[in-house]
Protein backbone atom coordinates (compact mmCIF):
# COMPACT_ATOMS: atom_id res chain seq x y z
CA UNK A 1 0.00 0.00 0.00
CA UNK A 2 2.81 2.38 0.88
CA UNK A 3 4.56 1.74 -2.44
CA UNK A 4 1.30 2.31 -4.31
CA UNK A 5 0.80 5.66 -2.57
CA UNK A 6 4.39 6.59 -3.34
CA UNK A 7 3.92 5.84 -7.05
CA UNK A 8 0.59 7.69 -7.00
CA UNK A 9 2.29 10.69 -5.41
CA UNK A 10 4.99 10.72 -8.09
CA UNK A 11 2.32 10.61 -10.83
CA UNK A 12 0.43 13.43 -9.14
CA UNK A 13 3.60 15.52 -8.90
CA UNK A 14 4.35 14.98 -12.58
CA UNK A 15 0.79 16.05 -13.42
CA UNK A 16 1.18 19.23 -11.38
CA UNK A 17 4.49 19.89 -13.03
CA UNK A 18 2.88 19.73 -16.46
CA UNK A 19 -0.01 21.97 -15.45
CA UNK A 20 2.10 24.77 -13.98
CA UNK A 21 4.06 25.71 -17.14
CA UNK A 22 0.88 25.49 -19.22
CA UNK A 23 -0.81 28.01 -16.95
CA UNK A 24 2.20 30.30 -17.19
CA UNK A 25 2.16 30.12 -20.99
CA UNK A 26 -1.61 30.68 -21.17
CA UNK A 27 -1.54 33.78 -19.01
CA UNK A 28 1.56 35.11 -20.73
CA UNK A 29 -0.03 34.75 -24.16
CA UNK A 30 -3.37 36.11 -22.97
CA UNK A 31 -1.75 39.22 -21.55
CA UNK A 32 0.15 40.04 -24.75
CA UNK A 33 -2.32 38.83 -27.33
CA UNK A 34 -3.71 42.31 -27.95
CA UNK A 35 -0.16 43.43 -28.80
CA UNK A 36 -0.03 41.05 -31.79
CA UNK A 37 2.93 39.30 -30.16
CA UNK A 38 1.13 36.23 -28.90
CA UNK A 39 2.61 33.65 -31.28
CA UNK A 40 5.76 35.32 -32.54
CA UNK A 41 9.17 35.57 -30.98
CA UNK A 42 11.32 38.46 -32.20
CA UNK A 43 9.19 38.45 -35.34
CA UNK A 44 10.57 35.29 -36.92
CA UNK A 45 10.55 32.38 -34.45
CA UNK A 46 7.24 30.83 -33.56
CA UNK A 47 6.52 30.49 -29.88
CA UNK A 48 5.73 26.73 -30.02
CA UNK A 49 9.08 26.17 -31.72
CA UNK A 50 10.82 28.15 -29.02
CA UNK A 51 8.97 26.10 -26.44
CA UNK A 52 10.18 22.80 -27.91
CA UNK A 53 13.73 24.08 -28.33
CA UNK A 54 13.78 25.24 -24.74
CA UNK A 55 12.63 21.88 -23.42
CA UNK A 56 15.13 20.06 -25.65
CA UNK A 57 17.92 22.33 -24.44
CA UNK A 58 17.07 21.68 -20.80
CA UNK A 59 16.99 17.92 -21.26
CA UNK A 60 20.31 18.12 -23.11
CA UNK A 61 21.77 20.04 -20.18
CA UNK A 62 20.30 17.40 -17.88
CA UNK A 63 21.99 14.65 -19.90
CA UNK A 64 25.31 16.46 -19.61
CA UNK A 65 24.77 16.91 -15.89
CA UNK A 66 24.08 13.20 -15.44
CA UNK A 67 27.13 12.27 -17.48
CA UNK A 68 29.29 14.47 -15.26
CA UNK A 69 27.60 13.14 -12.11
CA UNK A 70 26.87 9.47 -12.91
CA UNK A 71 26.09 8.73 -9.30
CA UNK A 72 22.87 10.75 -9.62
CA UNK A 73 21.65 8.35 -12.27
CA UNK A 74 22.66 5.30 -10.27
CA UNK A 75 21.11 6.35 -6.97
CA UNK A 76 17.84 7.96 -8.08
CA UNK A 77 14.65 6.47 -9.42
CA UNK A 78 13.85 7.25 -13.05
CA UNK A 79 10.56 9.09 -12.26
CA UNK A 80 12.41 11.45 -9.95
CA UNK A 81 14.95 12.18 -12.66
CA UNK A 82 12.14 12.97 -15.10
CA UNK A 83 10.50 15.26 -12.57
CA UNK A 84 13.82 16.94 -11.84
CA UNK A 85 14.56 17.65 -15.49
CA UNK A 86 11.00 18.83 -16.01
CA UNK A 87 11.46 21.20 -13.08
CA UNK A 88 14.49 22.63 -14.82
CA UNK A 89 12.36 22.98 -17.93
CA UNK A 90 9.84 25.03 -15.99
CA UNK A 91 12.51 27.38 -14.72
CA UNK A 92 13.86 27.68 -18.24
CA UNK A 93 10.43 28.50 -19.65
CA UNK A 94 10.30 31.38 -17.22
CA UNK A 95 13.03 33.11 -19.23
CA UNK A 96 11.26 33.65 -22.59
CA UNK A 97 7.90 34.19 -20.94
CA UNK A 98 9.21 36.85 -18.59
CA UNK A 99 11.59 38.66 -20.93
CA UNK A 100 9.44 38.53 -24.07
CA UNK A 101 5.83 38.42 -23.01
CA UNK A 102 5.95 40.38 -19.77
CA UNK A 103 9.00 42.67 -19.63
CA UNK A 104 9.50 45.09 -22.50
CA UNK A 105 12.99 46.09 -23.71
CA UNK A 106 12.50 49.65 -22.47
CA UNK A 107 11.05 48.54 -19.18
CA UNK A 108 12.85 49.54 -16.01
CA UNK A 109 12.41 46.00 -14.76
CA UNK A 110 14.15 44.38 -17.72
CA UNK A 111 17.65 44.42 -16.21
CA UNK A 112 16.46 43.29 -12.81
CA UNK A 113 14.46 40.41 -14.24
CA UNK A 114 17.38 39.35 -16.43
CA UNK A 115 19.61 39.27 -13.36
CA UNK A 116 17.07 37.16 -11.51
CA UNK A 117 16.85 34.74 -14.41
CA UNK A 118 20.65 34.44 -14.55
CA UNK A 119 20.66 33.75 -10.82
CA UNK A 120 18.11 30.98 -11.21
CA UNK A 121 20.16 29.35 -13.95
CA UNK A 122 23.26 29.38 -11.79
CA UNK A 123 21.29 28.23 -8.78
CA UNK A 124 19.84 25.17 -10.48
CA UNK A 125 22.67 24.07 -12.73
CA UNK A 126 25.80 24.94 -10.75
CA UNK A 127 25.08 23.54 -7.28
CA UNK A 128 27.25 20.41 -7.04
CA UNK A 129 24.53 18.39 -5.42
CA UNK A 130 23.18 14.93 -6.09
CA UNK A 131 20.86 15.58 -3.14
CA UNK A 132 19.49 18.64 -4.92
CA UNK A 133 18.60 16.86 -8.15
CA UNK A 134 17.00 13.94 -6.31
CA UNK A 135 14.94 16.13 -4.00
CA UNK A 136 13.97 18.81 -6.47
CA UNK A 137 11.28 16.55 -7.91
CA UNK A 138 8.70 15.95 -5.21
CA UNK A 139 9.20 19.17 -3.29
CA UNK A 140 9.61 21.54 -6.20
CA UNK A 141 6.61 20.33 -8.20
CA UNK A 142 4.34 21.14 -5.30
CA UNK A 143 6.21 24.39 -4.81
CA UNK A 144 5.67 25.35 -8.44
CA UNK A 145 1.99 24.47 -8.25
CA UNK A 146 1.60 26.59 -5.12
CA UNK A 147 3.44 29.46 -6.80
CA UNK A 148 1.01 29.49 -9.71
CA UNK A 149 -1.97 29.30 -7.37
CA UNK A 150 -0.67 32.14 -5.23
CA UNK A 151 0.00 34.14 -8.38
CA UNK A 152 -3.70 34.05 -9.20
CA UNK A 153 -4.56 35.08 -5.66
CA UNK A 154 -2.04 37.90 -5.86
CA UNK A 155 -3.91 39.18 -8.90
CA UNK A 156 -6.97 39.93 -6.78
CA UNK A 157 -4.98 42.09 -4.36
CA UNK A 158 -2.80 43.70 -7.02
CA UNK A 159 -5.47 44.66 -9.55
CA UNK A 160 -6.27 48.21 -8.31
CA UNK A 161 -2.72 49.43 -8.76
CA UNK A 162 -0.34 47.29 -10.77
CA UNK A 163 -2.85 46.08 -13.34
CA UNK A 164 -4.49 49.47 -13.84
CA UNK A 165 -1.14 51.20 -14.28
CA UNK A 166 0.01 48.49 -16.65
CA UNK A 167 -3.15 48.79 -18.70
CA UNK A 168 -2.80 52.57 -18.96
CA UNK A 169 0.84 52.20 -20.01
CA UNK A 170 -0.06 49.71 -22.72
CA UNK A 171 -2.78 52.00 -24.03
CA UNK A 172 -0.34 54.90 -24.13
CA UNK A 173 2.28 52.85 -25.97
CA UNK A 174 -0.26 51.59 -28.48
CA UNK A 175 -1.37 55.15 -29.17
CA UNK A 176 2.24 56.23 -29.71
CA UNK A 177 2.82 53.42 -32.19
CA UNK A 178 -0.22 54.42 -34.23
CA UNK A 179 0.10 58.22 -34.02
CA UNK A 180 3.83 58.67 -33.54
CA UNK A 181 5.66 60.21 -30.60
CA UNK A 182 3.91 62.95 -28.66
CA UNK A 183 4.09 66.33 -30.42
CA UNK A 184 2.16 69.53 -31.09
CA UNK A 185 -0.16 67.80 -33.55
CA UNK A 186 -0.38 64.47 -31.77
CA UNK A 187 -3.26 63.87 -29.40
CA UNK A 188 -2.17 62.62 -26.01
CA UNK A 189 -4.15 60.05 -24.07
CA UNK A 190 -4.72 62.16 -20.99
CA UNK A 191 -7.50 60.06 -19.55
CA UNK A 192 -7.29 56.51 -20.78
CA UNK A 193 -10.33 54.33 -20.40
CA UNK A 194 -10.70 52.26 -17.30
CA UNK A 195 -9.67 48.66 -17.87
CA UNK A 196 -12.38 46.07 -18.03
CA UNK A 197 -12.49 43.41 -15.30
CA UNK A 198 -11.29 40.83 -17.81
CA UNK A 199 -8.27 42.89 -18.88
CA UNK A 200 -7.60 43.80 -15.29
CA UNK A 201 -7.57 40.18 -14.20
CA UNK A 202 -5.24 39.10 -17.02
CA UNK A 203 -2.70 41.82 -16.42
CA UNK A 204 -2.63 41.40 -12.67
CA UNK A 205 -2.30 37.63 -13.03
CA UNK A 206 0.77 38.09 -15.21
CA UNK A 207 2.16 40.55 -12.69
CA UNK A 208 1.90 37.93 -9.98
CA UNK A 209 3.39 35.20 -12.15
CA UNK A 210 6.88 36.65 -11.91
CA UNK A 211 6.55 37.98 -8.37
CA UNK A 212 5.46 34.97 -6.36
CA UNK A 213 7.59 32.21 -7.97
CA UNK A 214 10.78 34.16 -7.36
CA UNK A 215 9.85 34.58 -3.72
CA UNK A 216 9.19 30.87 -3.32
CA UNK A 217 12.37 29.88 -5.11
CA UNK A 218 14.38 32.20 -2.90
CA UNK A 219 12.72 30.84 0.21
CA UNK A 220 13.23 27.25 -0.89
CA UNK A 221 16.93 27.82 -1.50
CA UNK A 222 17.34 29.26 1.98
CA UNK A 223 15.31 26.35 3.34
CA UNK A 224 17.52 23.84 1.54
CA UNK A 225 20.57 25.42 3.14
CA UNK A 226 19.00 25.43 6.60
CA UNK A 227 17.84 21.86 6.18
CA UNK A 228 21.26 20.71 5.05
CA UNK A 229 23.05 22.50 7.88
CA UNK A 230 20.70 21.19 10.57
CA UNK A 231 20.50 17.71 9.01
CA UNK A 232 16.77 17.33 9.44
CA UNK A 233 14.46 15.22 7.33
CA UNK A 234 12.92 16.30 4.07
CA UNK A 235 9.25 15.81 3.35
CA UNK A 236 7.92 16.10 6.89
CA UNK A 237 5.76 18.78 8.42
CA UNK A 238 8.36 19.34 11.13
CA UNK A 239 11.31 19.72 8.77
CA UNK A 240 13.30 22.90 8.42
CA UNK A 241 12.37 22.91 4.74
CA UNK A 242 8.66 23.20 5.46
CA UNK A 243 9.04 25.70 8.29
CA UNK A 244 11.45 28.00 6.50
CA UNK A 245 9.54 28.04 3.23
CA UNK A 246 6.27 28.71 5.04
CA UNK A 247 7.82 31.56 7.00
CA UNK A 248 9.24 33.19 3.88
CA UNK A 249 5.90 32.94 2.10
CA UNK A 250 3.99 34.41 5.03
CA UNK A 251 6.44 37.27 5.48
CA UNK A 252 7.03 38.31 1.88
CA UNK A 253 3.80 37.59 0.02
CA UNK A 254 1.73 40.43 1.61
CA UNK A 255 4.41 42.94 0.61
CA UNK A 256 4.11 42.36 -3.13
CA UNK A 257 0.75 44.07 -3.85
CA UNK A 258 1.64 47.24 -1.93
CA UNK A 259 5.21 47.84 -3.09
CA UNK A 260 5.58 49.90 -6.26
CA UNK A 261 9.34 49.36 -6.50
CA UNK A 262 8.99 45.69 -5.70
CA UNK A 263 11.49 44.43 -8.30
CA UNK A 264 14.16 46.93 -7.36
CA UNK A 265 14.55 45.88 -3.74
CA UNK A 266 13.77 42.30 -4.66
CA UNK A 267 16.82 42.16 -6.94
CA UNK A 268 19.04 43.35 -4.11
CA UNK A 269 17.45 40.88 -1.72
CA UNK A 270 17.91 38.12 -4.26
CA UNK A 271 21.59 38.93 -4.64
CA UNK A 272 22.19 38.88 -0.88
CA UNK A 273 20.22 35.68 -0.28
CA UNK A 274 21.71 33.97 -3.30
CA UNK A 275 25.32 34.76 -2.44
CA UNK A 276 24.83 34.03 1.26
CA UNK A 277 22.96 30.76 0.77
CA UNK A 278 25.50 29.59 -1.80
CA UNK A 279 28.37 30.20 0.62
CA UNK A 280 26.47 28.41 3.38
CA UNK A 281 25.65 25.53 1.06
CA UNK A 282 29.28 24.94 0.17
CA UNK A 283 30.36 25.23 3.78
CA UNK A 284 27.60 22.92 5.04
CA UNK A 285 27.69 20.31 2.29
CA UNK A 286 29.47 17.32 3.87
CA UNK A 287 31.15 16.01 0.72
CA UNK A 288 32.80 19.35 -0.02
CA UNK A 289 33.92 20.16 3.50
CA UNK A 290 35.60 18.52 6.47
CA UNK A 291 32.34 17.91 8.31
CA UNK A 292 32.45 14.31 9.63
CA UNK A 293 29.73 11.78 8.98
CA UNK A 294 28.72 8.86 11.15
CA UNK A 295 27.17 5.66 9.95
CA UNK A 296 25.67 2.82 11.98
CA UNK A 297 24.97 -0.48 10.26
CA UNK A 298 23.69 -3.54 12.10
CA UNK A 299 23.17 -6.82 10.31
CA UNK A 300 21.82 -9.98 11.92
CA UNK A 301 21.38 -13.49 10.61
CA UNK A 302 18.88 -15.86 12.16
CA UNK A 303 20.75 -19.14 12.64
CA UNK A 304 17.51 -21.12 12.59
CA UNK A 305 15.97 -20.15 9.26
CA UNK A 306 18.75 -18.13 7.67
CA UNK A 307 16.71 -14.94 7.40
CA UNK A 308 18.47 -11.61 7.61
CA UNK A 309 17.54 -8.46 9.47
CA UNK A 310 19.40 -5.22 8.91
CA UNK A 311 19.25 -1.75 10.37
CA UNK A 312 21.04 1.19 8.90
CA UNK A 313 21.23 4.66 10.39
CA UNK A 314 23.23 7.70 9.51
CA UNK A 315 23.05 11.18 7.98
CA UNK A 316 20.51 11.41 5.22
CA UNK A 317 23.06 12.53 2.64
CA UNK A 318 24.96 9.28 3.03
CA UNK A 319 22.05 7.14 1.91
CA UNK A 320 22.27 8.46 -1.62
CA UNK A 321 25.49 6.57 -2.14
CA UNK A 322 25.84 2.91 -2.93
CA UNK A 323 26.52 1.44 0.49
CA UNK A 324 25.87 -2.24 -0.10
CA UNK A 325 24.44 -4.37 -2.84
CA UNK A 326 24.19 -8.13 -2.67
CA UNK A 327 21.55 -10.78 -2.98
CA UNK A 328 20.44 -10.82 0.66
CA UNK A 329 20.88 -7.17 1.57
CA UNK A 330 19.74 -4.91 -1.23
CA UNK A 331 19.75 -1.28 -0.24
CA UNK A 332 17.14 0.86 -2.06
CA UNK A 333 18.46 3.74 -4.08
CA UNK A 334 16.32 6.61 -2.80
CA UNK A 335 15.39 7.94 0.59
CA UNK A 336 11.68 7.50 -0.08
CA UNK A 337 12.08 3.78 -0.71
CA UNK A 338 14.78 3.34 1.91
CA UNK A 339 12.87 4.91 4.74
CA UNK A 340 9.47 3.40 4.26
CA UNK A 341 9.33 2.65 7.97
CA UNK A 342 9.11 5.05 10.92
CA UNK A 343 12.30 6.91 11.67
CA UNK A 344 13.85 7.78 14.97
CA UNK A 345 16.82 9.75 16.27
CA UNK A 346 20.18 8.48 17.40
CA UNK A 347 23.28 10.03 18.87
CA UNK A 348 21.59 12.50 21.18
CA UNK A 349 24.99 13.65 22.44
CA UNK A 350 25.66 15.64 19.30
CA UNK A 351 22.02 16.28 18.40
CA UNK A 352 22.49 14.89 14.91
CA UNK A 353 19.44 13.51 13.17
CA UNK A 354 19.72 10.04 11.72
CA UNK A 355 17.52 8.14 9.34
CA UNK A 356 16.87 4.64 10.63
CA UNK A 357 15.68 2.08 8.12
CA UNK A 358 14.99 -1.60 8.63
CA UNK A 359 14.32 -4.27 6.11
CA UNK A 360 14.22 -8.05 6.08
CA UNK A 361 16.21 -9.85 3.46
CA UNK A 362 15.11 -13.09 1.78
CA UNK A 363 15.73 -16.35 3.59
CA UNK A 364 18.54 -18.61 2.44
CA UNK A 365 19.47 -22.17 3.35
CA UNK A 366 23.23 -22.17 3.42
CA UNK A 367 24.66 -23.74 6.56
CA UNK A 368 26.55 -23.19 8.75
CA UNK A 369 26.05 -19.48 9.32
CA UNK A 370 28.60 -17.57 11.33
CA UNK A 371 26.99 -15.71 14.24
CA UNK A 372 27.49 -12.37 12.54
CA UNK A 373 25.60 -9.76 14.45
CA UNK A 374 27.97 -6.96 13.69
CA UNK A 375 27.99 -3.22 14.01
CA UNK A 376 30.26 -0.89 12.14
CA UNK A 377 30.65 2.61 13.53
CA UNK A 378 32.98 4.89 11.65
CA UNK A 379 33.60 8.55 11.10
CA UNK A 380 34.43 9.50 7.55
CA UNK A 381 36.26 12.41 6.06
CA UNK A 382 36.33 12.93 2.31
CA UNK A 383 34.86 9.47 1.82
CA UNK A 384 37.73 7.81 3.67
CA UNK A 385 37.51 6.15 7.05
CA UNK A 386 39.35 8.15 9.70
CA UNK A 387 38.62 6.39 12.95
CA UNK A 388 36.06 4.15 14.54
CA UNK A 389 35.47 0.70 15.94
CA UNK A 390 34.41 -2.48 14.18
CA UNK A 391 32.41 -4.66 16.55
CA UNK A 392 31.65 -8.27 15.70
CA UNK A 393 29.53 -10.07 18.24
CA UNK A 394 27.99 -13.50 18.51
CA UNK A 395 26.75 -15.91 21.17
CA UNK A 396 28.72 -15.89 24.40
CA UNK A 397 29.97 -19.43 23.85
CA UNK A 398 31.70 -18.56 20.62
CA UNK A 399 35.35 -17.99 19.88
CA UNK A 400 36.02 -15.30 17.33
CA UNK A 401 39.23 -14.28 15.66
CA UNK A 402 39.63 -11.59 13.08
CA UNK A 403 41.98 -9.75 10.81
CA UNK A 404 41.95 -6.37 9.15
CA UNK A 405 43.97 -6.39 5.97
CA UNK A 406 45.19 -3.60 3.76
CA UNK A 407 43.80 -4.34 0.28
CA UNK A 408 46.08 -1.81 -1.32
CA UNK A 409 48.75 -4.49 -1.48
CA UNK A 410 48.80 -7.74 -3.40
CA UNK A 411 47.85 -11.04 -1.84
CA UNK A 412 51.46 -12.02 -1.28
CA UNK A 413 52.47 -8.62 0.17
CA UNK A 414 49.41 -8.15 2.36
CA UNK A 415 49.96 -6.20 5.55
CA UNK A 416 48.22 -7.00 8.82
CA UNK A 417 46.78 -3.77 10.19
CA UNK A 418 44.99 -5.10 13.24
CA UNK A 419 43.79 -8.34 14.75
CA UNK A 420 41.87 -9.46 17.78
CA UNK A 421 40.64 -12.71 19.28
CA UNK A 422 37.94 -13.26 21.85
CA UNK A 423 38.23 -15.89 24.55
CA UNK A 424 34.70 -17.16 24.61
CA UNK A 425 33.18 -13.73 25.05
CA UNK A 426 31.62 -13.73 21.63
CA UNK A 427 32.77 -10.25 20.71
CA UNK A 428 35.60 -8.70 18.76
CA UNK A 429 36.55 -5.04 18.64
CA UNK A 430 38.91 -3.57 16.11
CA UNK A 431 39.94 0.01 16.89
CA UNK A 432 40.57 1.98 13.73
CA UNK A 433 42.61 5.14 13.87
CA UNK A 434 44.77 6.19 10.98
CA UNK A 435 44.86 9.84 11.92
CA UNK A 436 44.51 12.49 9.29
CA UNK A 437 45.55 10.11 6.52
CA UNK A 438 42.25 8.29 6.74
CA UNK A 439 41.63 4.59 6.37
CA UNK A 440 41.16 3.81 2.67
CA UNK A 441 37.66 3.13 1.42
CA UNK A 442 38.90 -0.29 0.29
CA UNK A 443 39.26 -1.51 3.87
CA UNK A 444 38.64 -5.24 4.14
CA UNK A 445 37.27 -6.77 7.34
CA UNK A 446 37.75 -10.52 7.74
CA UNK A 447 36.36 -12.40 10.73
CA UNK A 448 36.80 -16.08 11.51
CA UNK A 449 34.75 -17.94 14.06
CA UNK A 450 34.26 -21.35 15.58
CA UNK A 451 31.92 -22.66 18.23
CA UNK A 452 33.03 -24.16 21.53
CA UNK A 453 30.70 -27.07 20.93
CA UNK A 454 32.18 -28.12 17.64
CA UNK A 455 35.62 -27.19 16.46
CA UNK A 456 34.73 -28.30 12.93
CA UNK A 457 32.09 -25.64 12.43
CA UNK A 458 34.10 -22.89 10.92
CA UNK A 459 33.10 -20.07 8.62
CA UNK A 460 34.02 -16.57 7.71
CA UNK A 461 32.64 -13.14 7.16
CA UNK A 462 34.09 -10.51 4.89
CA UNK A 463 32.97 -7.04 3.91
CA UNK A 464 34.86 -5.68 0.95
CA UNK A 465 34.26 -2.11 -0.14
CA UNK A 466 36.09 0.12 -2.53
CA UNK A 467 35.76 3.53 -4.08
CA UNK A 468 33.20 4.16 -6.81
CA UNK A 469 35.93 4.36 -9.43
CA UNK A 470 38.48 1.65 -8.53
CA UNK A 471 41.62 1.19 -10.53
CA UNK A 472 41.68 -1.66 -12.99
CA UNK A 473 44.06 -3.72 -10.89
CA UNK A 474 42.28 -3.27 -7.60
CA UNK A 475 39.38 -5.66 -8.12
CA UNK A 476 41.49 -8.75 -8.91
CA UNK A 477 43.61 -8.07 -5.84
CA UNK A 478 40.50 -7.73 -3.73
CA UNK A 479 39.17 -10.96 -5.11
CA UNK A 480 42.44 -12.68 -4.26
CA UNK A 481 41.88 -11.77 -0.64
CA UNK A 482 38.53 -13.52 -0.69
CA UNK A 483 39.72 -17.03 -1.42
CA UNK A 484 37.71 -19.31 0.82
CA UNK A 485 34.91 -16.85 1.46
CA UNK A 486 31.51 -18.57 1.67
CA UNK A 487 29.28 -18.18 -1.35
CA UNK A 488 26.78 -16.09 0.60
CA UNK A 489 29.34 -13.31 0.88
CA UNK A 490 29.02 -10.63 -1.75
CA UNK A 491 31.41 -7.90 -2.71
CA UNK A 492 29.84 -4.44 -2.63
CA UNK A 493 30.70 -1.74 -5.08
CA UNK A 494 30.76 -1.09 -8.83
CA UNK A 495 31.41 -4.19 -10.84
CA UNK A 496 30.69 -6.45 -7.88
CA UNK A 497 28.22 -8.52 -9.86
CA UNK A 498 30.93 -9.34 -12.34
CA UNK A 499 33.17 -10.95 -9.73
CA UNK A 500 33.13 -14.75 -9.51
CA UNK A 501 31.88 -16.08 -6.20
CA UNK A 502 33.84 -18.77 -4.41
CA UNK A 503 31.86 -21.60 -2.89
CA UNK A 504 32.69 -23.29 0.39
CA UNK A 505 33.10 -22.15 3.95
CA UNK A 506 36.48 -23.08 5.30
CA UNK A 507 38.61 -21.16 7.75
CA UNK A 508 40.64 -18.34 6.28
CA UNK A 509 44.15 -19.63 6.00
CA UNK A 510 46.40 -16.57 5.67
Automatic annotation (TrEMBL):
TM region(s), chain numbering: 6-31, 43-68, 80-103, 115-133, 139-157, 212-234, 240-258, 265-287
Domain Vacuolar membrane protease transmembrane, first and last residues per copy: 45-161
Keywords assigned: Membrane, Transmembrane, Transmembrane helix
Protein name, UniProt field: Vacuolar membrane protease transmembrane domain-containing protein
Amino acid sequence: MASFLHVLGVIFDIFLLLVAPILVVVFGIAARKREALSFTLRGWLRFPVALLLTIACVFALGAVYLSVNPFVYQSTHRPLLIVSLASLAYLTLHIPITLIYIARPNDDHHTQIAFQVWGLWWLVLALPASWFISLIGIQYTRLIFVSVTLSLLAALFDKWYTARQGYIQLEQERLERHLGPPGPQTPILSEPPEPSPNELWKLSAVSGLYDIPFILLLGSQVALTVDLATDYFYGTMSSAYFRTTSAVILMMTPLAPFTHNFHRWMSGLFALLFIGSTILTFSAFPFTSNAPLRLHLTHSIDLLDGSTFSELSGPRGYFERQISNNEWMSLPRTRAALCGVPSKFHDAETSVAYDVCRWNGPTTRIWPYPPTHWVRKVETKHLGFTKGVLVVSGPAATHLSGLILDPGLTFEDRRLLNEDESDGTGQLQFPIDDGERGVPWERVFVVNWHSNNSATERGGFALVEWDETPEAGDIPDLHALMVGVPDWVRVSGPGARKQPLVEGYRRFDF
